[in-house]
Amino acid sequence: MQQSRGVSDASDASDASEMVAPLIAGLAVAAVAYAGRYSLQAWQAFKARPPTARMRRFYEGGFQPSMTRREAAMILGVRESTPAEKIKEAHRRVMVANHPDAGGSHYLASKINEAKDMMLGRTKGGSSAF
Fold it and tell me: Is the model's pTM score more than 0.85?
C-alpha cells in the first residue's frame, strides 16, 4: 500500500505543476492585454491634446517694397511698441545669426539694419540698398 501512496503523491505534484503553467500563461496574457490597452489609451490622449506652439512659425512672404513698422517688428522679432533697448538687443541677436561675415546674406543684413532704423525712428525715407 505504501507504494501506491508514493505514486499517488507524485501524480498529485505533477497535476499541480500542470495546473500552474496555464495559470502563469493566463496571467502573462492578461498583463500584456492590460499594458496594450493602457498604451492605446495613452496614445489616443496624446493625439487628442490641443496643439501647442512647438516651434515659431516663420512669416511666409517676401519683403514689402517699402518697409513698414509692422514688417520691421516682425524681422526683429519684437512688438511694435518695444522700447529702444530691447530693439537694439533684438537687432544684435538677429544680426549675429545673419551677419555676412559669418556666412549670412548681405541682403538680409541690410533688411535687418533697415528694420532697426525703422523701429528706432531713423529712417531716411528710402529702402535698403538692394
Answer: no
